[in-house]
Amino acid sequence: MTAQPHDFMPSETLLPEKNLRAIRAALVVPEDREAFDAGLKAVLDEVRVSLDLAALNTFMHRWWISACDSARDPEGRRQMHARAKQVLAGEPAPAGKPWREILAARGIDV
Description:
By secondary structure, the chain is mainly α.
């Protein structure tokens, strides 16, 4: 059995629709929206040249997962970006929980 995005999402969380407008609207952190906009421009340029929509489908799926995470835990997204800024600036960042522990708390065995 493979893990799908809905496997780790609480059923009561309202997930965004899987379209570009809904995905962008669900991104609550400015850094996410900026990265989404830049990535969308790049992937649309790629699609114009290649005439292959696979890159757009991959882009949309990847950002839909981020939008689901944003809808489920907006404060967690903010903290993630704050921690990333600290690390990029060379500042010490507090250690978080290991990802295995987080997944175990969600009932996902790794």
